[in-house]
């Protein structure tokens, strides 16, 4: 039950098989589907053997983490802790994609080729890759903004396909309430996010609605990659009073650098989740990502031990009670923001 299973796929191995081409990707995905459907020994016979059947044996679980940042790290740790205490027998194959969607697609096919019984995807793009490349494999997402909006479920209440998950749709309204309490004179809000992430597009629209209901002016500053994000942040300076950064993986990965630059320019950042505040953002009202991971582990157990279909398990949002307000005193001091406003 170690963190890494023997024989796990590597980034170099995936890219060698893919050869950097769409044809290579398709070949790997098809090969993986064949392996998963034939069944096998020792790990429960692959993905096809899992659907709708209760199991007591060892479950081979492929875990794909989109990026290494605080929120997803916490979700993975919560998942592993809950799984360890669940009574299930399991073996994990943990892969880290370094925010590389092509790598996610390659790993999805490799999980099937290696006869993983289930997959767990940390981050929306990772879930999209597994659900589309290996449609017969049960997959549980964790830290997913909206399964239906991501195109992997008919609805969040009744997914209907091979995927379900523990969501982390950030409490945008509460975050804008926090923004106004800390920065009562702010009128112009810049929304910083990566356009390559469906989850971020959803949150950007929610942020615009939250701003409009409070008579705030909201402007999107976005790009499709990390280099463009730095330029987007730079172009924000002088045009807005505060930056709002949702739970965007690209932003989270670069948050330490973004926050340093923004603070130096006198620009506060209200964040989508606590890890981004720890990296230098001003404040958030966000969820405990360890609990998101624990919810995902409970879903895995329901699929493996109880024989439930992923499509019959509603996607779950964290309980409101698990929200917490997190502030960064160093950032507040540098920006001249009075955190005692939250005590009123």
TrEMBL record:
It comes from the Bacteria. InterPro entries: ABC_transpt-TYRBP-like (IPR007487), Peripla_BP_I (IPR028082). This is Putative ABC transport system substrate-binding protein. It holds the Pfam family ABC_sub_bind. Gene3D superfamilies: 3.40.50.2300.
